[in-house]
Amino acid sequence: MSKYKYIAFDLDGTLSDPEHGLVEGFIYAFKKMGVGDFGSRESLRRFIGPSLYKVWQEEFGFNEHTVIDAIEKFREYYNIYGWWDNKVYDGVREMLAALKTSGKTLILATSKPEDTAKKIMHLFELDQYFDFLGGAAGDNRDHKWQVLEYSMQSVGATPEETVLVGDRMYDAEGAAKCGVDSVGVRWGHGTDEELEAAGFTMLASSPDEVVSLLS
Description:
It is a single chain. By secondary structure, this protein is α/β, with parallel strands linked by helices. It folds into two domains: 6-17 and 87-214, HAD superfamily/HAD-like (Rossmann fold), CATH 3.40.50.1000; 19-82, Putative phosphatase, domain 2 (DNA polymerase, domain 1, Orthogonal Bundle). The chain is 47% helix and 16% strand. It has a six-stranded parallel beta sheet, with helices on both faces. Helix 7 links the parallel strand 6 (162-166) and strand 7. The longest helix has 19 residues, at 64-82. The chain is globular, with a radius of gyration of 17 Å. The N and C termini lie close together (6 Å).
């Protein structure tokens, strides 16, 4: 029996693979903003997971106003066509069911806007396993640590009893800032090199392994 009572999950790259819908939205936004060289479709996978507000300023030199415009252009596409262009990873439903059956409290902590995250969780019927669904909400709750803190507070979770499961270095960083342990999953969008360097407490290669580590 693990010490963790509360298990927080990232969404993109951890529970579901949103790559196609997100990348199409990124391309739509970049074309609308006149970004001439945004790289290959494969290279755009690096934007899955982190706060777009931060990384797009760093990558393309957007200022605080133009980055908001770019994100709005992305949402023009994503909020209609992209959010459902998504699929649940094999074994995830079984993982969630097993953890729930073992008495764990499951919470979502995603940097995706909360309303969109809730739609995705409902679409795939994953919300039935969760006690709370937390997501981003503008400037006050944009970074992973802010969302994680909000989700934990909403269910009364303590850092000592909580673990975050995610697929990118931003998940490990957010967990560390909140003082909680973390599991990096190898089936998402983070490379092995990124996961190993990120400082995750544990790594898992399959949903079954997550169950073994956290039940």
